[in-house]
Specification:
Elements lengths: L2 H17 L11 E2 L9 H4 L1 H11 L5 E8 L2 E12 L4 E2 L6 E2 L4 H14 L20 E5 L5 E5 L6 H5 L13 H7 L13 H8 L17 H13 L3 H13 L20 E4 L2 E4 L11 H4 L12 E2 L1 H12 L3 E2 L2 E2 L3 H7 L13 E3 L4 E3 L2 H4 L8 E4 L5 E5 L4 E6 L10 H11 L4
Parallel strand pairs: 1-3
Antiparallel strand pairs: 2-3, 2-17, 3-4, 5-10, 6-7, 8-9, 11-12, 13-14, 14-15, 15-16, 16-17
Helix pairs in contact: 3-14, 4-8, 4-9
């Protein structure tokens, strides 16, 4: 049935339902809805179709799934291109993606849930849970790649880790030789046969990139928090996340490692080239096409370990947008969500127009940022070129999943953002 005719029929049904005293207001969160019912233009939203399809047709993306929701209703959910080009498998709306650093948001919520259970405070020193971090060091770069190692000026706190101000990178800082010797570099854990808490314990012996609380440094912060979650909860990270977040939210397709029965839904990773895209090698740096299915399955990375679908991740974001609850299940209190989604950097340099909260980037100045959005919007993305954001003021959730590493300077994220906001009617 053509989209226009289907839209008219659904809108007519909704008008009848309103007259009958019920409609989408009584539906569960993230039920599908006619865009106009939440002040989104169907015609303008359909501009996404041709734009996203063009990236596939131009062989700049293998495939993509995009989801847009407003006021708790899904107004756009489409799949384009191929899940696997070589086997001619089309992308599906329920395809499963490696979400890499989008894992950080869920691990951060796990930490906040433990604070609400009285098992930790984010102001606590990291060494309270991982004693090996009681004394840490920092590598101070000198000329020609040399560096001095000095004691850290202050203890690392859990809040430092949540805001990426602990000074801990991905092993590529001034002391990268020491990190390489320890075999701890890069964000990829799925191929590791060492439990993540053992890897984290070895990190404590290595020089970090900056003194705690002085710089924003992106790195192993949330992987370390994963080890904290295990220590404070007495459970493995995957168990705690599943019981505390995934199961209550109905995120049935979100896993640290994929059940074999779902392997045929996992999107293949591609890499950008001068001529388009090519299948990423297996194993490859940060790829390992099969490790999430056939790997050791012992290293649960709070920083980059999860796989998910667009619908599952949208449920998580809608929970945050709702102030910590979804479909009658409360994950966090409203005040914890508020604390997570405000800027904590206190003047520490970050991106123009943005600050950083507890697991999310935060828009602080729309003009300085220079793209459509709203003050208070929070989001992030993943290494495989996925992205997401939630806009509390506009009631918007956007999830965009693809599998491209490296991405090669695509502008699809910016066009997605422009096309979502241009579709608003109010």
């Amino acid at each position: 049935m053509p989209k226009t005719k289907l839209r008219v029929l659904v809108l007519a049904w909704c008008l009848v339902a309103v007259l009958s005293g019920f409609c989408l207001a009584e539906a569960q969160d993230l039920a599908p809805a006619v865009p106009e019912s939440v002040a989104v233009s169907s015609d303008r939203l359909e501009r996404l179709d041709s734009v996203l399809q063009q990236y596939v047709s131009d062989k700049r993306l293998a495939g993509v799934v995009a989801l847009v929701a407003r006021h708790g209703r899904v107004v756009y959910k489409e799949a384009f291109g191929m899940r696997d080009i070589e086997s001619s498998e089309p992308m599906r709306k329920d395809s499963i993606f490696r979400i890499a650093s989008q894992t950080k948001a869920l691990a951060s919520v796990a930490v906040m849930a433990l604070q609400e259970q009285g098992k930790l405070l984010i102001a606590d020193p990291l060494s309270k849970y991982l004693p090996e971090f009681k004394t840490t060091t920092v590598a101070i770069e000198k000329d020609e790649g040399e560096y001095d190692v000095v004691p850290g000026r202050r203890p690392i706190t859990l809040r430092h880790l949540l805001t990426h101000t602990a000074g801990i990178g991905y092993g590529n800082g001034p002391a990268k030789d020491r990190w390489a010797e320890a075999g701890i570099q890069g964000w990829y854990f799925a191929n590791r046969s060492e439990p993540v808490n053992h890897t984290v314990a070895r990190m404590a012996e290595l020089p970090f990139d900056a003194h705690p609380g002085e710089r924003w440094v992106y790195g192993y912060n949330t992987d370390i928090l994963g080890a904290v979650v295990e220590r404070a909860s007495g459970q493995k990270l995957d168990e705690f996340v599943r019981e505390t977040i995934l199961e209550p939210l109905g995120m049935r397709d979100t896993h640290f490692y994929l059940p074999p029965s779902k392997a045929d839904r996992l999107a293949t990773v591609y890499s950008a080239t001068e001529d388009g895209i090519e299948r990423a090698p297996d194993p490859g740096l940060g790829v390992g096409q099969g490790h999430y299915v056939k790997g050791p399955r012992v290293s649960f990375s709070g920083g980059a370990g999860l796989l998910s679908t667009a619908e599952d991740y949208a449920r998580f974001l809608q929970m945050m947008l709702n102030g910590g609850t979804l479909d009658g299940h409360r994950i966090l209190s409203r005040k914890s969500v508020e604390l997570m989604t405000v800027d904590h950097l206190q003047g520490i340099e970050f991106n123009p127009g943005q600050g950083f909260g507890l697991g999310f980037s935060i828009v602080t100045d729309v003009g300085a940022r220079g793209v459509p959005g709203t003050v208070g919007e929070f989001g992030w993305g993943g290494a495989y070129h996925s992205t997401y954001w939630a806009d509390p003021q506009e009631g918007i959730v956007v999830v965009y999943f693809t599998q491209l590493l490296p991405a090669g300077g695509l502008d699809d994220h910016a066009k997605l953002r422009a096309l979502v906001y241009q579709a608003l009617m109010d």
